[in-house]
Specification:
574 residues, mainly alpha, 2 domains, two-stranded antiparallel ribbon, 17 helices, 2 strands, 2% strand, globular, transport, ion channel
Length: 574
């Protein structure tokens, strides 16, 4: 009887759980169908053309547009209703980041439209429809995420699950399409450069999808075709960020949240000067290295080897600094006694899973390079720098993941908890008035001195203020009643040590943030030694290694951008 009585409460969540399972399976099948279509186009499968792939993606985007419009219209009609919000989802800096990537994506779409107009005689109409649809999709999706990324949907839950998961996998397919297009372009350039390094035994067959007709305006065609591939990295990051934000929205559907005040964590430049200076030095030097690398690689064998050596030495130095900074931060955490926040938080859980999951891409490439160095019979001089570089990539990501995951799980310190107060006694006409600013107020400067009064915090004395003349006098009677204990000042000392630790952690987070942005730039813009050193192609074979690189590199690139976003959040929380 007891078991039967308990069934309704337990089984009440079954329909929603089934809806979650059904919607996830729908999304996975949607993604797999698009993935196979993308693969078929990439390998020139018989009967599959680019127009088929673009038609599929256009259809998915149009369905998502209809769902977003329906959701926005329904939200407008229910504007007066109070809705639950996930305060951890859709942070303002994340919305600003996705907006920046979206703006560059719109520029990419305009380049594609211009490219289609110049080659309209021999291109499918879908290649002109796709960038227009994608531009509309981008604008509406960014607006949707700005307004509703924090929503916790409690109505039409089954329908909304399918709509949100459709949006998630639509963005993942658009990300996959961007990654594949950019990778094919990089591979063509890589095949042409390999011959300069002396690897003439590798067959050079360009995988060309260029239109089979002449351009109407040669100069514009060159600008559009070259500019498109420089903008793809931003388009790729835009879609992966959008899919993660939509996934958090999907996980929040039907979720019960505890209503508590969320502590705001604004970003402040104060106190992180050292970290910012060193980080900017790394960023500037990395940009210079990338420019020199892209100019020198492929020009001649000597120049290519010098470019690779220069890249490896710079990367080894940066990774060593990052490892040191991460170890220092972890040691500081070991010295502190802070509780971890283990409450349910889909956004935080997804952040941790993405950090470890996408780091596997870099680890795969690094272990491949280590194995190639060990097994290769001949070792050009520059390939030996690849060994410490690969080892440091593995160690640095391991340390950084520990630091970020622990940081986002640590509870924030509350300024009013367990803070003792000092009493400042003001004497007025023989009576005393007690003012009690906390240590937090004294530290922030919000004391009586802001109002023209300067309280005296000396041992065994107080400052009084007479109402008629404003003169101050010491009184032995109040000296005995208001005596600062030793524990007050020991607390102040402990608070000072804590602030110093926090300042160090903020500088480390700022430094790692800029370093991750720096390390995102080289692979995103074509500086990929995994392609260019040639040693791995000899050991594993050209085609197998290229497949490994093309699969792992997108995750490695995304890891750096996601780490930078996570470290920005860490800096705000610290």
């Amino acid at each position: 009887m007891e078991k039967a009585a308990g069934c309704p409460s337990v089984g009440g969540s079954y329909p929603q759980k089934n809806a979650e399972i059904l919607s996830s399976q729908y999304g996975i099948n949607l993604f797999l169908a698009g993935l196979l279509l993308t693969f078929a186009w990439a390998v020139h499968a018989v009967g599959i053309s680019k127009s088929h792939l673009l038609s599929y993606l256009i259809t998915l985007m149009l369905i998502q547009l209809l769902w977003m419009l329906w959701y926005l219209c329904r939200s407008c009609t229910q504007r007066r209703l109070i809705r639950d919000k996930d305060t951890h989802a859709g942070a303002c800096w994340l919305k600003c980041g996705i907006t920046l990537f979206a703006v560059i994506t719109l520029i990419l779409d305009s380049f594609k439209i211009g490219y289609y107009i110049d080659f309209s005689n021999c291109l499918s109409p879908t290649e002109g429809i796709f960038p227009v649809t994608h531009a509309v999709h981008t604008i509406l999706q960014v607006y949707f995420l700005w307004c509703h990324a924090k929503d916790i949907i409690q109505s039409f839950k089954t329908l909304e699950r399918f709509g949100v998961i459709h949006s998630v996998f639509t963005n993942l397919l658009l990300w996959t399409n961007g990654v594949l297009t950019e990778s094919k372009h990089q591979l063509n350039e890589h095949k042409e450069r390999l011959i300069t390094l002396g690897f003439g035994n590798i067959t050079i067959v360009l995988d060309d999808h260029a239109p089979q007709c002449n351009c109407t305006t040669t100069t514009l065609c060159s600008i559009f075709s070259q500019g498109i591939y420089y903008l793809y990295p931003f388009n790729i990051e835009y879609h992966i960020l959008a899919s993660t934000m939509l996934y958090v929205l999907w996980k929040n559907i039907g979720r019960k949240v505890e209503h508590h005040q969320q502590h705001k964590t604004p970003f402040k430049f104060h106190g992180i000067t050292v970290g910012m200076i060193f980080g900017l030095i790394v960023l500037t030097s990395t940009i210079a290295i990338v420019v020199v690398y892209l100019i020198q690689i492929g020009r001649s064998k000597i120049k290519s080897e010098l470019a690779l050596t220069m890249f490896y030495l710079h990367a080894i130095f940066v990774l060593a600094l990052m490892c040191t900074a991460g170890i220092v931060a972890l040691l500081i955490y070991r010295l502190e006694d802070r509780l971890l926040d283990n409450s349910k938080n889909p956004a935080r859980k997804l952040d941790a899973e993405l950090l470890v999951g996408t780091a596997a891409g870099s680890w795969l490439l690094s272990w491949g390079s280590i194995l190639a160095i060990i097994c290769a019979q001949a070792h050009p001089k520059y390939t030996w720098y690849n060994l410490p570089y690969s080892v440091l990539v593995i160690i640095e990501k391991y340390i950084q993941n520990l630091f970020i995951i622990e940081s986002i799980h640590r509870k924030q310190e509350k300024g009013n908890d367990n803070i003792k107060t000092l009493r400042i006694v003001t004497i007025s006409r023989g009576s005393t008035l007690s003012l009690t600013p906390s240590y937090k107020e004294i530290y922030n400067g919000h004391t009586a001195r802001d109002h023209g009064e300067v309280p005296c915090l000396l041992k065994g004395s107080i400052c009084g203020r007479e109402s008629n003349g404003g003169a101050r006098e010491e009184t032995s009677q109040e000296k005995s009643s208001v005596t600062h204990s030793a524990s007050d000042f020991s607390f102040y000392s402990r608070n000072s040590v804590t602030n110093n630790k926090r300042r160090i952690l903020k500088n480390i987070a700022a430094f790692l943030f800029l370093c991750n942005l720096s390390l995102w730039i080289p692979p995103a813009f074509g500086c990929r030694p995994e392609y260019d050193n040639g040693l791995e192609e000899i050991v594993f074979g050209f085609e197998p290694w290229i497949i490994v690189v093309n699969l792992a590199m997108p995750f490695s690139i995304f890891y750096r951008m996601h780490s930078a976003a996570s470290l920005f959040e860490v800096n705000c929380k610290t």
